[in-house]
Amino acid sequence: MKIAVVGTGYVGLVTGTCFSETGNNVTCIDIDESKVEKLKNGIIPIYEPGLDVLFERNVKQDRLHFTTNLKEGIEGAEIIFLALPTPPGEDGSADLQYVLKVADDLGPLLKQYTIIIDKSTVPVGTAEKVHNAIAKNAKVDFDVVSNPEFLREGVAVEDFMKPDRVVVGTESEKAKKTMERLYAPLVRQGNPIIFMDERSAELTKYAANSFLATKITFMNEIANLCELLGADVDAVRRGVGTDSRIGKRFLFAGIGYGGSCFPKDVQALAKSAKDVNYDFRILNGVMDINQKQKTKLIPSIKDYFNGDLKGKKIAIWGLAFKPYTDDIREAPALYNIEELIKEGAEVSVFDPEAMENVKGIMGDKITYAEDQYSVLEDADALMIVTEWPVFRTPDFNRMDSLLNNKVIFDGRNLYELSSMEELGYEYFSIGRKS
Ligand code: UGA
């Protein structure tokens, strides 16, 4: 099949590359000339494990192409994916200007029946808007399909190639057949393609992300309660997660969820609900609790230093919003750094991938270390914000010789309480005894 993908961000690039891997001829289109130039020169602008191998193979085999020219890029395409940004507007709703601008441009360019697919996370009713924008100038028949993505950063290629399910919103039989053909190589193990109407598909994406954000937040609240009641959230997690109705995943308490998806999507769904006069109270709670959770360890750090952080050097392990990404959007680390600086502390940081991105925001307000040990030199405390595997089994002897105090504030519950006690550390974590 010939496919075009408009937008070469994280979703567009993974979609384009993976569909070229299943044998399609894919052209990725982006208005950003420098990005397209990089891609043409084999440089992938995002960090996503496994993407490079697929990218190189398919470029080499002439199945994956890049252009800034929309007309040229969609030439002969049976399917056009829209993978464009939908940033939150001032009122929290998703801003559709990029999606609708491309839809406007596409109308006069279509030469044969084409399926236009919304891959971006878009509010309910967008497929209709995209349809109307294209229809204004289209001279041929076309269908607009909603096909939300459920990729997790860091494992996006795996999620794409082996999806739990594929959600397709369309009532057109013709479009359904093409979508079945397109996804056939990815659903061979019996994982379903779930067909529904466009509006339900659009809502499914928001419901899934908001549910997961709520699940995490619920456990964060249980963790906070564990601290007050003298219980252990890890034990509670194991106890409840083994109930198959609840499930083991996304039950890890910590210092809040971040990233480009959960915060934005929870906010957008709450706004969509409000627009139809529905007060989605759980979501308001989720947003509020998560924001507070991000800086939950700050009071414990202050208490440890008798309320005064002036001149104290705090080392931070982990800046990305989660491991295996360099993404720092809504990352708890940023909020903690701001708070610590406000309290007069000196902050030094280390992250395996996200240092450059943080430098771009924090500049010389903090110091940047070469590795996880040098960041500890002369530090008065260690704070752990992201659960990179490299932090899970560190050389504690080496740490002892570098840190001024044997104290760790751990926002991701990386260590057993008993082993920290044995090692002689004062250890503050989430939802467990300290
Ligand atoms: C999320 C969804 O998981 C994907 O299915 C979805 O496609 C994607 O958003 C999107 O809409 O594009 P992602 O933001 O990459 O994916 O990250 P997750 O792995 O879901 O983690 C989100 C946040 O939740 C992270 O900050 C993570 O640390 C936190 N989290 C996750 C917890 O605090 N506890 C957990 O048990 C799990």
Automatic annotation (TrEMBL):
InterPro entries from the UniProt entry:
6-PGluconate_DH-like_C_sf, NAD(P)-bd_dom_sf, UDP-Glc/GDP-Man, UDP-Glc/GDP-Man_DH_C, UDP-Glc/GDP-Man_DH_C_sf, UDP-Glc/GDP-Man_DH_dimer, UDP-Glc/GDP-Man_DH_N, UDPglc_DH_bac
Q: Which UniProt keywords apply?
A: NAD, Oxidoreductase
**Residue span(s) of domain UDP-glucose/GDP-mannose dehydrogenase C-terminal:** 315-417
Which pathway does it operate in? Nucleotide-sugar biosynthesis; UDP-alpha-D-glucuronate biosynthesis; UDP-alpha-D-glucuronate from UDP-alpha-D-glucose: step 1/1
**What's one GO BP annotation on this UniProt entry?**
polysaccharide biosynthetic process
- Record-level Gene Ontology MF annotations: NAD binding; UDP-glucose 6-dehydrogenase activity
Broadest EC class?
Answer: oxidoreductase
**Which residues does the Swiss-Prot or TrEMBL record annotate as the active site?**
261
- What residues bind NAD(+), as annotated? 30, 35, 86, 121, 153, 264, 329
Sites where the protein binds substrate: 150-153, 205, 250-254, 258, 322
Tell me which PANTHER family the record gives: UDP-GLUCOSE 6-DEHYDROGENASE TUAD
| Catalysed reaction equations from the record | UDP-alpha-D-glucose + 2 NAD(+) + H2O = UDP-alpha-D-glucuronate + 2 NADH + 3 H(+)
E.C. number: 1.1.1.22
| Entry superkingdom | Bacteria
Q: What is this protein called?
A: UDP-glucose 6-dehydrogenase
Species annotation: Mangrovivirga cuniculi
To which protein family does this belong?
A: Belongs to the UDP-glucose/GDP-mannose dehydrogenase family.
Q: Where are the transmembrane segments?
A: none
Q: Specify one Pfam family.
A: UDPG_MGDP_dh
